[in-house]
Amino acid sequence: MGANPKSGMHRVWKELGAVQGRQFVAPEEFSRYEARDGQSVIFCSDVDRFERHLIELAPQDAGIIKDLTQGIRRLAGMDMPVDADPIGMLRLAPRMIPAMGYMKKYGPIHMRDYANRFSSPLLREAMASVADLPDYPALGLLMPLALRSAGNGGYPLGGSLAFSEAIARQVIAALGERFPGIGEQVEVVDVATPMTYERYTGNWRASFEGWLISTRTMPMMMSGQWTTIGGAPGG
To answer: What is the reported pLDDT for 87?
Structure first.
C-alpha cells in the first residue's frame, strides 16, 4: 500500500525516506483461475479490463459483474486517512462516503454465497476459489483489487530489507538535525522485515496479521501482537 505517489500512504513513506528513487512493480494480473476444461478467469489489476473480461466470459452475468467492478472503482477512490486533523478527514469524505456503501454491502456476504450468485459455472468456480474459508467475506475480493486498480498495490524493488534500511537512514538523519553528530555515534543499526517475525517469534510464514477476516464479529477483547485483522468487518 502506498505505491501511488498521490496516495496518503505514499506521503508517509516519503517522509520516512522509503520511496525516494525506488521503483514499484505492479503485475497486470492479481491472480488467475484455470478450470479443468482449460478456460481461465483472470483477476486483472485494471478494473476496466477485468470487467470486459468477465462479461466476455459470462454476458448473462453482466449485472452482477458491473456491480462488482463499480464497487472496486469506489473502493479504489478511497484514500487511506493518514491525516488525523478534522480538515484532512473532511477532504477525504467525498471519496470515503461512496465507498462505505459498498463496504457495508459486501462485508457481511460470505464469499461462497457470493459466488453462487453467478449463473456461469465458470465464474462460480472462480469466485469460490478466492478463499476456501467458511466466513471469508466478499469484501476480501474487492479490497485487494481496488488497491491494484488505484495503483497502490505495487511491490518495491529491492524487497523489505532495502525498504527498512532506507527508513533507518532517514531516522538517523532526522536525529542528526536535532542532535548534531549523533549519527557518528551510532554503533549498531538493526531493522525488521517480515522474516524477523518468523525468526524471533515463529510467526507462520512471517505473518503479522493473526486473525482471518470474517463476516462474523467476535465479542472479546484482545491484546498482543496478533490483534490486527485483514482490514474487513469483524474482529
So the answer is: 67
From the list 142, 49, 51, the residue with the least C-alpha distance to 100 is 142
Alpha helices (H) along the chain: 8-15, 47-57, 62-76, 86-106, 111-115, 121-128, 139-149, 159-178, 182-185, 194-201
The string of pLDDT tens digits covering residues 84-108 is: 666 666 666 666 777 788 888 888 8
Looking at residue 41, its amino acid is V
152-163 pLDDT, tens digit each: 888 888 888 888
DSSP per-residue string spanning 10-77 = HHHHHHTTSSTT--EE--SEEEEEE-TTS-EEEEESSHHHHHHHHHHH-GGGHHHHHHHHHHHHHHHT
Reduced to 3 states, what is the DSSP secondary structure of residue 113?
helix
The larger pLDDT score, comparing residue 2 to residue 22, is at: 22
The grid cell for 135 is: 466466513
Query: Is the C-alpha dihedral spanning 176, 177, 178, 181 positive or negative?
Result: positive
Question: Greatest CA span in the chain, whole angstroms?
Answer: 68
The total number of residues shown for the chain amounts to: 235
pTM: 0.75
